[in-house]
Amino acid sequence: LPVVAVVGRPNVGKSTLVNRILGRREAVVEDQPGVTRDRVFYEAEWVGRDFWLVDTGGWEDRVQGMAHRVAEQAEVAVSLADVVLFIVDANVGITTTDEQLLRVLRRADRPVVLVANKVDDQRGELEAAALWNLGLGEPHPVSALHGRGSGDLLDAVLEAMPEEGRGGAVDRGPRRIALLGRPNVGKSSLLNRLARERRVVVDEVAGTTRDPVDERITLGGRDWTFVDTAGIRRRVLQSQGADYYASLRTRAALDRAEVAVVLLEANEPISTQDLKIIDLVLESGRALVLAFNKWDLLDEERHAQLEREIEQNLGHVAWAPRVNISAQTGRHADRLVPALDEALESWDRRIPTGRLNAFLGTLVAAHPHPLRGGKQSRILFATQARTRPPRFVIFASGFLEHGYRRFIERRLREDFEFTGSPIVIGVRIRE
Ligand code: GDP
């Protein structure tokens, strides 16, 4: 479900508005600002559309008046949100804290619905109109306390809301692959093997080189872009490559790619250089496929040895699909496409917020967080803030042990089968 975050400095009426939207008096409203509440996420509904409502008032510091803390909290909320409800107090106007929040909102690329609260009568609507100045579009005058204007406001929220949460299917053209590996591992042989089907040269960068930078290759009936094939095909450059330049080039290729195929030599020990290349891929957050080349040279003894090496050295990327190929003979070259598809599918995937929290609820109930000093950590909510690669944010109260975060990560990966994609888990702690 889409996430709507309610953002505003303390005491502008965030929780009152949340109550108004929820249409019930369940969420506690205190007169003193910053009273810690237990729940900050609510399932809400308006004319048949369901969404998550996030009340950032629940994260307010007990110590008040620190504008940067308020901005920090807003930053988190905004990063999660599909739509931001930005509330200002129409009677007070714009304060320096509001201005700080505005900066956060301008940086974030999210639709903002501007709410002028505490407009209890017609006179207040004039004051609210002055907020057009903020450049956030039409100010919506409401009285959260009395309900005035809240229906129109919710209509505006729905209008700003994406159909299925952020992301969605966008046609981005052919998927982009970085083919990586140390010299002589067989990159250019594999490229030639794959291109045998049909090769179309693309993306000539005018004036820089006569070689194509990238190549488009048809595999499994679809077009793929292999980035920086110039770096693979121009051997001169490659052999010149001091480590530093090689890694610069690899980084640049990863930058433009969506998935990396790291080629390793099946008949030679896994080297530190191989591991370094894999590290660069992990650093880039790209999807990953491991391909062991020169499989035709393998005997049984080496095969057994290789399996041991993989276990010892590649445990941290055990989630990457693996193909055993021979660029020379063409063995299993056709397995590359399904591996790429699987990795990219994981990389693009978005878990709906409802499903994610159902999963987390079950997991935490079955395996509670260990006590610390007799205290329990409470996991409040999780949402997927990003895709490509999937990034999750978990909200907990008190603390969340590193080991437990890793446990959640592992289970998340297993249960939702994120094969071939790194996943990132951020934690937000509420005192
Ligand atoms: P690059 O530096 O990674 O582009 O590696 P090349 O594609 O130039 O290959 C280096 C050497 O390995 C060449 O002599 C290739 O013929 C050989 N080679 C590449 N792939 C295979 C393979 O699958 N099996 C065997 N036996 N040799 C291969």
Could you please describe the fold and organization of this structure?
There is one protein chain. The protein is an alpha/beta fold and 431 residues long. It folds into three domains: 3-160, Rossmann fold; 175-347, P-loop containing nucleotide triphosphate hydrolases (Rossmann fold); 353-430, GMP Synthetase, Chain A, domain 3 (2-Layer Sandwich). The chain is built from 14 helices and 16 strands. A seven-stranded mixed beta sheet has the order 8-9-10-7-11-12-13, with helices on both faces. It has a six-stranded mixed beta sheet with strand order 2-3-1-4-5-6, with helices on both faces. Helix 11 (300-313) links the parallel strand 12 and strand 13 (322-324). Helix 9 (243-256) packs parallel to helix 10. The longest helix has 14 residues, at 67-80. It is elongated and about 85 Å long. It binds guanosine-5'-diphosphate. The site of guanosine-5'-diphosphate has 16 residues, from helix 6.
Mean pLDDT: 82
Number of strands: 16
The CATH topology label of the largest domain is: Rossmann fold
Beta strand %: 15-25%
Return the domain count. 3
Which CATH architecture of the largest domain would you pick?
3-Layer(aba) Sandwich
